[in-house]
Structure to design on (353 residues):
C-alpha cells in the first residue's frame, strides 16, 4: 500500500469524516483508551491528540441498549453509566432499555433529535436497527456500535464487542488441556439460542479447539435460551441422556444457574464445568473450589465502559493511547480470557451480578 498525502483535518467536514473512514478493523484489547502515560512521546511525534482523563471539550453521549433483563445486559448499562460519571466533560443521555425494535428505534431517533454529539448503541437486533444507525451517521452523529453489530458498516463509525468464536476456542482449549491425558474423554455442550449467530460462532470455536485433542469427543449438545429455566431443563436432558462424561461447557453463566440446579438434583460431580461470560457468582464458585465449576470464559461487559471512552474520544476529535493513528479504530474486538482459580482474584472486580 502506497503512502497517500494527508489532507488537513480542519478541511474535512464532520459528515465526510464519518463516511470516509477506512473500513479495515483493528482487533485489540480495549484497555487504556483514556490513558496516555505509556505513549506520550510517540503521540507527540505523530502529531496526534490523545484522549485522557483530564477535562476537555464537553461531549454529550446518547446511550441506547436493550432491556436489562439479564445479568450481563444489566452490567452493560451499569458499566456505561459509571464510566460516564468519571468524566467531568461527559453528559450521558441514557434511554430506558427495550427489547422491542420499534421502541428502541424511536429512542435512538429521540437522541438524534436532541443532537447528541455521539451515540453508543447496543441494538436489541442489529439488522433491525441498522437504518436508524445510518440516519444518525448521515446527520453527522458518529455511532459506536456495541456488541450486536449493524448489518451495514456505514451505520457505525466504530464497533466494539466480544469475540464469540474466540470464546468457544478458549473454552475448548482449556477443557482440552485438562483432559489431554485422559483416554476416550467425553464432553457435552450447553449452548445458547441457536438462531443467534453468536451461539453458532461459540460452538464453532469450541469444536475447532477440540480438533487439537484426538482423545476427546463431544458426545452431546443442547441449546438453551440464556435463561435460568431453560438452562435447568436442557441440562436435565443432557444428564439423563449421558450417564457419564468428563467436561461441560456452558455458554452463559446466567443460564448456568439453572444448569447447576439440575446437576445438584442429579447428584452428579464426575465432570468439570466451564462457564461463559464471567458472572461474579461463578467467579466466587471458582475461587471457593467446592463445586464442578472450574473456569469461566469472559465476554466482558466492560466493553460498555470502553464504548464510552471511544465515544468521548470521537466527540473530542482525538485518538487513543497506545496507537499512533489520529483516529480511533473502526473495530475493537475484546479478548475472551479464561478465569481459573489461579487468576480469579484479578477478574473478580469486573464480574457481573
Amino acid at each position: 500500500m502506497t503512502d497517500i498525502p494527508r489532507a488537513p483535518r480542519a478541511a474535512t467536514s464532520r459528515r465526510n469524516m464519518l463516511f470516509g473512514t477506512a473500513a479495515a478493523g483493528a482487533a485489540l484489547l480495549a484497555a487504556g483508551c483514556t490513558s496516555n502515560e505509556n505513549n506520550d512521546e510517540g503521540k507527540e511525534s505523530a502529531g496526534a491528540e490523545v484522549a485522557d482523563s483530564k477535562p476537555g471539550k464537553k461531549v454529550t453521549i446518547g446511550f441506547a441498549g436493550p432491556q436489562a433483563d439479564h445479568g450481563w445486559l444489566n452490567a452493560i448499562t451499569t458499566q456505561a453509566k459509571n464510566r460516564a460519571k468519571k468524566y467531568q466533560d461527559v453528559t450521558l443521555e441514557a434511554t430506558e432499555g427495550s427489547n422491542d425494535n420499534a421502541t428502541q428505534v424511536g429512542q435512538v431517533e429521540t437522541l438524534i433529535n436532541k443532537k447528541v454529539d455521539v451515540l453508543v448503541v447496543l441494538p436489541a437486533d442489529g439488522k433491525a436497527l441498522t437504518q436508524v444507525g445510518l440516519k444518525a451517521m448521515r446527520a453527522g452523529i458518529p455511532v459506536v456500535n456495541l456488541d450486536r453489530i449493524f448489518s451495514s458498516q456505514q451505520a457505525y463509525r466504530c464497533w466494539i464487542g466480544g469475540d464469540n468464536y474466540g470464546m468457544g476456542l478458549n473454552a475448548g482449549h482449556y477443557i482440552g488441556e485438562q483432559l489431554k491425558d485422559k483416554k476416550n474423554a467425553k464432553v457435552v455442550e450447553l449452548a445458547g439460542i441457536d438462531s443467534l449467530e453468536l451461539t453458532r460462532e461459540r460452538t464453532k470455536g469450541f469444536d475447532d479447539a477440540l480438533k487439537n485433542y484426538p482423545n476427546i469427543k463431544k458426545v452431546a449438545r443442547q441449546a438453551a435460551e440464556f435463561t435460568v429455566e431453560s438452562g435447568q431443563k436442557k441440562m436435565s436432558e443432557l444428564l439423563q441422556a449421558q450417564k457419564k462424561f468428563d467436561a461441560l461447557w456452558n455458554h452463559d453463566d446466567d443460564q448456568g444457574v439453572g444448569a447447576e440446579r439440575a446437576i445438584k438434583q442429579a447428584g452428579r460431580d464426575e465432570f468439570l464445568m466451564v462457564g461463559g461470560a464471567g458472572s461474579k457468582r461463578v467467579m466466587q464458585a471458582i475461587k471457593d473450589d467446592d463445586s464442578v465449576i472450574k473456569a469461566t470464559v469472559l465476554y466482558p461487559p466492560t466493553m460498555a465502559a470502553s464504548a464510552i471512552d471511544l465515544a468521548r474520544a470521537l466527540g473530542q476529535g482525538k485518538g487513543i493511547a497506545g496507537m499512533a493513528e489520529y483516529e480511533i479504530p473502526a473495530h475493537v474486538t475484546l479478548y475472551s480470557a479464561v478465569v481459573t482459580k489461579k487468576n480469579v482474584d484479578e477478574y473478580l472486580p469486573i464480574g457481573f451480578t
Summary: Confidence is low (pLDDT under 50) at residues 1-47. DSSP finds twelve helices and twelve strands in the chain. Residues 112 and 244 are 55 Å apart (CA to CA). Residues 164-299+338-350 form a domain with the Rossmann fold fold (CATH 3.40.50.2300).
